[in-house]
Design brief:
The complex is a heterodimer of chains A (about 110) and B (about 110). Chain A is mainly beta. Chain A has no helices and 11 strands. The termini of chain A are far apart. Chain B has a 5-stranded mixed sheet, with no helix packed on it. Classes of the chains: A mainly beta (about 110), B mainly beta (about 110).
């Protein structure tokens, strides 16, 4: 009963490096989301997807890219890491955008130095 | 989506009921009230949601005022494991489009032994 799985759990990047945060869900959910959470703050939406092949920007998309080639996977790409991207990243999924609960992964703690 | 206002922090004695208030005075007729919580360093967890009737599940009860401008989440017998940040979110019931959850700062509930 895995739910939403994120990898890695922790990562340290140097400025200018790139990386991909992986997210996979096994609940056959159509909707998937990426959020970031800065210390002491609420979650902010980066990107979301309503199904395979469809993605859209959230509140804070700059510096990130996503793709959704399958229903299960929704990777988040950082091309040129910056200190401002130091944060905890959460992936979530839901069956639809309507009136349904969202399930969250355990997060990826990223530090850019 | 309507804005919500929650107290930044609350304490509750273990075994007592925890009553967490939320004001959403600009809520419109098609917006649901959702509650999530986030235990330290973990991903947010869905608790309950409702439209206008009071709701109860195995975790909590949700009381929505008749004018729907405020609500209260009730944890009937708080335990130390209920110590978390609790988020009240209002969200439009969409029709095919993804409606992201917009998280505010929430209420830090501390259950005291």
């Amino acid at each position: 009963n895995a739910g939403v799985t994120q990898t890695p759990k922790f990562r340290i990047l140097k400025i200018g490096q790139s990386m991909t945060l992986q997210c996979t869900q096994d609940m056959n959910h159509n909707y998937m989301y990426w959020y970031r959470q800065d210390p002491g703050m609420g979650l902010k939406l980066i990107y979301y997807s309503v199904g395979a092949g469809i993605t859209d920007k959230g509140e804070v998309p700059n510096g990130y890219n996503v793709s959704r080639s399958t229903t299960e996977d929704f990777p988040l790409r950082l091309e040129l890491a910056a200190p401002s991207q130091t944060s905890v990243y959460f992936c979530a999924s839901s069956y639809s955008g309507e009136n349904t609960e969202a399930f969250f992964g355990q997060g990826t703690r990223l530090t850019v130095v | 989506d309507a804005k919500t206002t929650q107290p930044p922090s609350m304490d509750c004695a273990e075994g007592r009921a925890a009553n967490l208030p939320c004001n959403h005075s600009t809520i419109s007729g098609n917006e649901y009230v959702y509650w999530y919580r986030q235990i330290h360093s973990q991903g947010p967890q869905y608790i309950i949601h409702g439209l206008k009737n009071n709701e109860t599940n195995e975790m909590a009860s949700l009381i929505i005022t008749e004018d729907r401008k405020s609500s209260t989440l009730i944890l009937p017998h708080a335990t130390l494991r209920d110590t978390a940040v609790y988020y009240c979110i209002v969200r439009v019931r969409s029709s095919g489009s993804a409606r992201q959850l917009t998280f505010g700062s929430g209420t830090q509930l501390t259950v005291l032994p």
